[in-house]
Amino acid sequence: MKIGIVCYPTYGGSGVVATELGLGLAKKGHQIHFITYGRPARLQSFQENIFYHEVNAEDYPLFEYPPYDTALASKLVDVVKYEGLDLLHVHYAIPHAAVAYMAKKILLADGKYIPVVTTLHGTDITLVGNNKSFAPVVSFSINKSDGVTAVSESLRKQTFDNFAIKKEIRVISNFIDFDRFKKVNKDHFKKAIAPNGEKILVHVSNFRKVKRVEDVIYVFEKVLKKIPSKLLLIGDGPERRKLEDLCRQIGLCDEIRFLGKQDAVEELLSVADLFIMPSANESFGLAALEAMACEVPVISSNAGGIPEVNIHGKTGYLSDIGDIASMAKYAIKILEDEDVLAEFRKNALEQAEKFDIKYVLPQYEKYYEYILETAVY
Ligand code: GMT
């Protein structure tokens, strides 16, 4: 198949999933065309069957904002037409599903039919989509997509609860590529981060409010009272400044390291003992799955789709959103006993294996085939 993939190319989970999906499909012989405004973060080197088309929203003195949607629609029309694409797979309802619909109509006027599959990732539904000014576009573009997938049962339910959806939504979960995400020997990292054998706690996110990174710091503060440990905060985003201030305020600058954005996050996860994800909302929690693939148990909130990934009492523990005391108690329970930690590590890996890309790629391929057979125009 020749498939066009549209996504946000940044460090967010949706861009990661879209890119890894494209790379995986290309390895299986499909021709993949990424159509984005920047090179996707995980698209780093040449690979057979991968093409990249950059969308340039030209600025013009008359425009207050560069017209990204129009530029993307025009690029989609161009790529579908001249590369002979069979299907467009857009990640994120707004604006991608809406823009794909526009491109589809333009192409139809020219006698070319292109089916559109939309994947919902979470913030498009739970945060942005609930903003009343976006809601009509979100509902419309979901209903007008030929196929719709959501990354968890929880997100599927939330979509039906919040919007007037007349379409079937297929759940195809996030996945993990074990060629990349696996525990590797990085003892020199461990020695540098925790020279006295301290336990290493890790959080990875884009430091948005919804991630509740301050809870990570408060949980760590409690853990530190019982267990010698270090905290790595990986990623960057709008809350970082406040978080740095918080670390200074509570005097933990020597114990907490802000590492910023990291490309080889799996190498850091390889030296971690515990991953913390206290999010207020999380449609799936790909970052937790990546940690589990590297044999790291997870202390998380029970928001959204996280319980579909992190199994309470087995791969980690779930607490109510904001319940720092409970999260710290569970973290200590895992970290204070080496046998317990080893058992949770083993369970985390076993659970992550259920989300192996080798099981999920065929689900997308089958879904594309189904859409190509059934789409009516
Ligand atoms: O979590 C983020 O801030 C990034 C966000 C995105 O839209 O890129 O991630 C969402 O999609 C990921 C991939 O499907 C999911 O694993 C994340 O749980 C989801 N984030 C939220 O729902 C907050």
The total strand number stands at 13
Largest sheet: 7 strands, parallel
Number of domains: 2
Which spans have pLDDT < 50 for at least 5 consecutive residues? none
CATH class of the largest domain: Alpha Beta
Shape: elongated
Beta content comes to 15-25%
Q: Name the strands of the widest sheet in spatial order.
A: 3-2-1-4-5-6-7
**Percent of residues in helical segments?**
40-55%
Please state the CA-atom Rg, rounded to the nearest Å. 21 Å
- Seen as an oligomer or otherwise, the chain set is single chain
Ligands bound here? ligand GMT
> How many helical stretches?
14
Query: At the third CATH level, what is the topology name of the largest domain?
Result: Rossmann fold
Order of helices and strands: EHEEHEHEHHEHEHEHEHEHEHEEHHH
Write up what this structure looks like.
With 377 residues, the chain is an alpha/beta fold. It has 2 domains: 2-175 and 357-374, Glycogen Phosphorylase B (Rossmann fold, 3-Layer(aba) Sandwich), CATH 3.40.50.2000; 187-353, Glycogen Phosphorylase B (Rossmann fold), CATH 3.40.50.2000. It has 14 helices and 13 strands. It has a 7-stranded parallel beta sheet with strand order 3-2-1-4-5-6-7, sandwiched between helices. A 6-stranded parallel beta sheet has the order 10-9-8-11-12-13, sandwiched between helices. Helix 2 (68-83) crosses helix 3 (93-109), helix 3 (93-109) crosses helix 5 and helix 8 crosses helix 12. The longest helix is centred in the last third of the chain and has 18 residues, at 357-374. The relative contact order is 0.12. The model has no long low-confidence stretch (mean pLDDT 94). Bound molecules: ligand GMT. Residues 12-15, 17, 121-123, 126, 151, 174, 206, 208, 210, 281-286 line the site of ligand GMT.
